[in-house]
Specification:
47% helix; Sufe protein. Chain: A; SUF system NifU family Fe-S cluster assembly protein; alpha+beta; 146 residues; single chain; iron ion binding; three-stranded antiparallel beta sheet; iron-sulfur cluster binding; globular; NIF_FeS_clus_asmbl_NifU_N
């Protein structure tokens, strides 16, 4: 088996793990900003809740339904942004967006499990699935700042 096949297998396992055992699934409650978004082309739907205090994301949770890429991306994103400043979270979102579009991105930053989604860039129809939660997070930060 080649290195690429091993990586693809590992990435698929990481995605399926987040899909079957989502991190941060649930609701924060009334303290958080709530954002609902959907992808009408494939039926993915997400409700993201963020709690932002003093410019830092102190909690992030989601509920929704959709494909394995959409829900695992939401799980990975909530893990990645918890404890980050708003600026750090938006920078991560920018890196993720560039990775999905096949553009160069700052690979000095450890993306952890998020890297498993880089193969999605080869499937343009699935990019919206992967970016749905990230777009919701950006919208949530905008809403919170207003």
């Amino acid at each position: 088996m080649s290195l690429n096949n091993n990586l693809d297998t590992l990435y698929r396992q990481v995605i399926m793990d987040h899909y079957k055992n989502p991190r941060n699934r649930g609701k924060i409650g009334e303290d958080g900003v709530s954002i609902e978004m959907n992808n009408p082309t494939c039926g993915d739907r997400i409700e993201l809740q963020l709690k932002v205090e003093d410019g830092k994301i102190t909690d992030a949770k989601f509920e929704g339904e959709g494909c394995s890429i959409s829900l695992s991306s939401a799980s990975m994103m909530t893990q990645a942004v918890k404890g980050k400043t708003v600026e750090e979270a938006l920078a991560l979102s920018d890196i993720f967006s560039n990775m999905m579009l096949g553009k160069d991105y700052n690979d000095d930053i450890d993306l952890g499990d998020i890297e498993a989604l880089q193969g999605v860039a080869k499937f343009p129809a699935r990019i919206k699935c992967a970016t749905l939660a990230w777009k919701a997070m950006e919208k949530g930060i905008d809403t919170n700042e207003e």
